[in-house]
Amino acid sequence: MNGRTAVATEGGQCSLGVNRRQGIHIRVHNSGTSIHLLHCEHSSILTRDVERIMCRQLFLIVSIPAFVFAADDQAKKTTETAVVVKPGPDDPKEKVKPGPIDKDAPKTFKTTKSGLRYRILRKSDQAKPEESHMADIHFKGWLDNKSIFQSSYRSGKKKSYPVDRVIPGWTEGLQLVGKGGMIELVIPPKLGYGKRGMKVGKKVQVPPNSQLHFIIELFDSREEITIF
Question: Does residue 193 or residue 3 have the better pLDDT?
Fold first, then answer.
C-alpha cells in the first residue's frame, strides 16, 4: 500500500507518506522554519486505519508546539501593551499631584547627542525656554531603584531655576519642552551629579555616579533679569 496524507495545523503543515518498502515517513513543517523528519520501519500489517490513527497523533504532535508559539507571541504582545506611562513613581508624601499626561505619550525615549534620554509626556506648542531664562516648574527626581530624592510636589510649591545654572541634563532638557508641557528625563551621571553625587547636610541624597530620572512640568519661562 502506498499513499500520502497531508494535515494542516496552526503551526504549519505536516505530511505522512506510507510505502510498504520504505516504511512511514512523517515530515513536519512548523512555523515555516523548523523541519522534523520521523521514520518508522514498515510493517506487513500496515493498514489505512493505522495511517489515519498516526495522522491524528501527528496532528497533536504538531499542534502542541503551535499553541506554545502562539502563547509566547501573545505574552510578548501583552507585555508590550502592559507598559503604562506614568509621571514617575507614586509618592504618598506629595501635597499636589503631577498634572495629566497625554493619552498617546510615548513608551520609549529619544536620545540626544550628549546621551540625555527624554520623552514628552504632555505636548505643548508654546515657547520653549532658552539658556538665559528662568523656568517656573514642578519636578520629581528618583534613582534607578525608584527611590525619590527630591520633589517640589511634596511641598506643593513651584520652583524657579535659571536654566543655565542647573545640572547639564536639566539645562538641555528644559529647552526641549514648551510652556505647559511635561517632560521625562533620564540623565547619565556625566550630565547629573557625576562622581561627587549630592548631599543635603551630611545625608547622601544621590550616590556618586548615579543615573537620574526626572519629570518636569514647565509652567512659565522668562528672560532672567540681572541686577548689578
Answer: 193
